[in-house]
Amino acid sequence: MDCHVRYAGDDDPDKCTARKLARFDLVELHRSDRATPYGVVLNPHAEQALSPADAADTETLVALDCSWESAGEARFSLPGNHRALPYLVAANPVNFGKPFRLTTVEALAAGLVILGHRPHAERLLSKFTWGETFLDLNDEPLRRYAACDDSADVVAVQGEYLDR
């Protein structure tokens, strides 16, 4: 699966996971909406959750790399099928343990696991000292989400974690 990032460039470049992935040729960065390819867009404002059913529609996964402070709905004007990631917790040093506060690499890796591409997710995360921790922290929910049939199933599983 091809991984692409719409790069806004408003985060600290030294901490930018998307830039690091691009240096290793693991993702392609795009600086404009028009240059970003069509695919499944990871969007926290989407009305539908990402599920394994989305894998049949595309071979392209797209994330937006921007500051959480500027990640409003307007920033996600990319073409494609917009899907929200379900409940997961961050392993990155800045937001460790916080739900829904994933870095770009964590978001892409979660999407890849849910879409059935776990080895690809592991390759992306291997470039970060805390990468394996993300998969460890989220092992059970990621496996459960990846076993779902569709978005409704993913939302139902997510509900079990939110009710805890």
From TrEMBL:
Any Pfam family hit: Fer4_RLI
EC category name: transferase
A GO CC term attached to the entry: cytoplasm
EC number(s) recorded for this UniProt protein: 2.5.1.157
GO molecular function, one term: S-adenosyl-L-methionine binding
Record bears the keyword Transmembrane: no
Catalytic activity: an N(1)-methylpseudouridine in rRNA + S-adenosyl-L-methionine = N(1)-methyl-N(3)-[(3S)-3-amino-3-carboxypropyl]pseudouridine in rRNA + S-methyl-5'-thioadenosine + H(+)
Residues covered by the 16S/18S rRNA aminocarboxypropyltransferase Tsr3 C-terminal domain: 40-162
Signal peptide: none
RNase L inhibitor RLI-like possible metal-binding domain mapped to chain residues: 4-34
Residues holding S-adenosyl-L-methionine: T17, L64, L85, T104
Keywords carried by this UniProt record: Cytoplasm, Ribosome biogenesis, rRNA processing, S-adenosyl-L-methionine, Transferase
Record bears the keyword NADP: no
Domain of life: Archaea
Function: Aminocarboxypropyltransferase that catalyzes the aminocarboxypropyl transfer on pseudouridine corresponding to position 914 in M.jannaschii 16S rRNA. It constitutes the last step in biosynthesis of the hypermodified N1-methyl-N3-(3-amino-3-carboxypropyl) pseudouridine (m1acp3-Psi).
HAMAP family named among the record's database cross-references: TSR3 (MF_01116)
Protein name: 16S rRNA aminocarboxypropyltransferase
Organism, as annotated: Haloplanus aerogenes
Organism phylogeny: Archaea, Methanobacteriati, Methanobacteriota, Stenosarchaea group, Halobacteria
